[in-house]
Amino acid sequence: SRYIRVISEFWEHTYGGWYIGNYRDYSALPGTPILTEFGAQALPNVASMKEMVGESWPPDWAKMAYHDFQYDQTFHVAKIPLGNNWVEFVENSQNYQSQLLKYAIELYRKNKYKALGGMFQFMFMDCWPSVTWSVIGYDRQPKKGYHTLVQVYQPVLIGVNLGRDVLMKEIDPVGFHLPIVVRPWVVNDRHEALENCTYSVCIKNGEFSALFHQERTFTVPSDGVLDQAPSLVISNDFPAGKYQVELVLRSNAEVLSTNQYDLTIVSTAVDAVR
User: Fold this and answer.
1) Which letter, b or e, does each residue of 94-107 get, where b requires 16 or more Cβ atoms within 10 Å of its Cβ?
2) Given phi > 0 = left and psi -120 to 50 = alpha, else beta, which region is 272?
3) What is the rounded CA–CA span in Å between residue 168 and residue 20?
4) Which of 77, 180, 236, 274 has an alpha carbon within 20 to 30 A of 33's alpha carbon?
5) Are 194 and 156 in contact, with CB atoms under 8 Å apart?
6) pLDDT per residue over 137-186, tens digit each?
7) Is omega for the bond preceding 49 within 30 degrees of 0, making it cis?
8) pLDDT reported for residue 110
9) What is the C-alpha to C-alpha distance for residues 187 and 223, in angstroms, rounded to an integer?
């Protein structure tokens, strides 16, 4: 009952945002029923990097290359900022891998059975001290991408396309506020339908949080996808700043899935440029 593939063909490897293009190119979906490689490199933790190539800053690029680091793809395709020190470089690198994996996997899962039957994120763990596409370093310490995989591979996954990750609240001289429109979708890999579903949205930053509930119930089909659950329109009266949008899906009061997205709210054109 299980399909066996003797080899992993190069044409089944999609590396948008790493070898070519932009990670948003994943929205085109792969032209293969089984995607056998996709992802991006990410540096392991700071201690591992210093043990590999030394503490000097900027890094010794020859040593970095010996440990599999791809300079061209990192800076010229992914355009990952170097930062001012090891801490910033590691954070920037891991953030990019996490962002790419979340974007790609959510799109792929939402389109299951349409253009894709299976996918394999490349790769899980390093077999020697190196900089690779893994989400677990040689020292068995997880990168940010590992926690992203845990989130996006939930058997039941709620997600949302906000359309943009930076929102300007005042778009005309009278201060009209562009609302935050939440249009969730749900992927259900269980073999039973999910009945009486509702969801909530929490928009928060370090200072405060605001909670909103969608009370209309809906059903998610067995082993299927609900392309759009009932929408929720939230008035954008939040102060400018960086926020997290957290979604919680419930069925008969049981929590089935959680997910989160980053959103930046700016109040003027000057703030948007900054």
Assistant:
1) bbbbbbbbbbbbbb
2) alpha
3) 31
4) 77
5) yes
6) 999 999 999 999 999 999 999 999 888 889 887 665 565 667 899 999 99
7) no
8) 93
9) 8
